Amino acid sequence: MVEVSNANPLINTYLKYKWIFLSFVVSTLLMIAKFIAYYATYSSAILTDALESIINVVASAFAFYAIYLASQPKDLNHPYGHGKIEFFSAGLEGVLIVLASVFIVFHATESLIHPTLFKDLKIGLSIISLGTVINYILGYFIEIEGVVKKSPTLIADGKHLKLDAVSGLILVAAVILVYLTNIVWIDGVASIIFAVFMAWNGIKIIRKSIGGLMDETNEEVLEKVVDILKSNQKNDWIDMHNLRIQEYGADIHIDAHLTLPRYWNLEKVHDVVHEFEDIIGESFNSAVEIFIHTDPCLPECCHYCKIENCPIRQVPKTVDIDWNKVNLSLNQKHFLENV
Questions:
Q1: What is the membrane topology here (predicted)?
Q2: 245 three-class SS
Q3: What does the DSSP 8-state code read for residue 146?
């Protein structure tokens, strides 16, 4: 087993704290401004944006706690660390988005049935426009940081802020139309349209977080590992199977079965396994924990063994095994009859 980390965990955690705290502060200020805009206008569309901002604040607060918990070291109760709290945090944010969209639909429907006279829409338009720009810029940089740091929490928060910015564009267009045409129902319809869009994105965030909690394979990470193995494959690595990858927030856990020559001594096996682990671990910029189970080669492996002048070879090499994500993930040696 080896654990590799090519990035200082304290620096990574500090950067996550910085971005999520900035998100919390900005979301709080924008929420206050949007409610002021609502009470100045009584626009259903502006109320929609204000309610969505409450979610931003709550989600950012919980995300801050999630990042704190995820940074805690492994212990007896959590031998794989606390990283999965980030998936839970992202899922909670998705749930809050869906709940807010349901409330928005009810409020917008009521405003269509019992329309309210608007006040000064210019104030609301100015505040929503400013909030749209700020949210998109902040969300863009937070999502990028989340991708770099492999943080589901930051990615979800960044997507949420960008979603809030898209909502702002829709609502700004609706407010402008109401201002120009005096057709009040446009306000409610725009709110409902955005609520549906919001719910759909919330469901996608929930779906991804559930996948992370259930150790669903991340195809991007799996393909990266397979590419690393194929480009660095040694003749001594006779066979490999049962490759499994789990994500714990930003941390990655990899285990696999590696077939090596059965006539090697334990020291030689130990050195090759460490070389194997280092090749994989050094290719990631986050903490990687690797467990390798070694199997001795069997006579059936001779068909695809690449070792030249093997002292125990029984039959010549006749086939090549393509190390792809399907072959490497199978829980069996790749004997000739399985090729």
A1: Multi-pass membrane protein
A2: strand
A3: H
Measured CA to CA in angstroms, residue 206 lies from 51, 193, 213, 216, 276 at distances of 20, 20, 11, 13, 35
Q: At 148, which helix (H) or strand (E)?
A: helix 121-149
CATH architecture of 219-338: 2-Layer Sandwich (3.30)
CATH of domain 2-213: 1.20.1510.10
Q: Which helix (H) or strand (E) holds 200?
A: helix 185-213
The domain limits of the chain are 2-213, 219-338
C-alpha closest to that of 19 among 153, 129, 128, 136: 153
Q: Residues 208-246: pLDDT tens digits?
A: 888 888 877 888 888 989 999 988 989 999 999 999 988
**pLDDT tens column, 111-140:** 778 776 666 667 777 887 888 888 899 989
Here the tokens at position 245 are: 């990858």
pTM > 0.85: yes or no? no
CA distance 154 to 70: 12
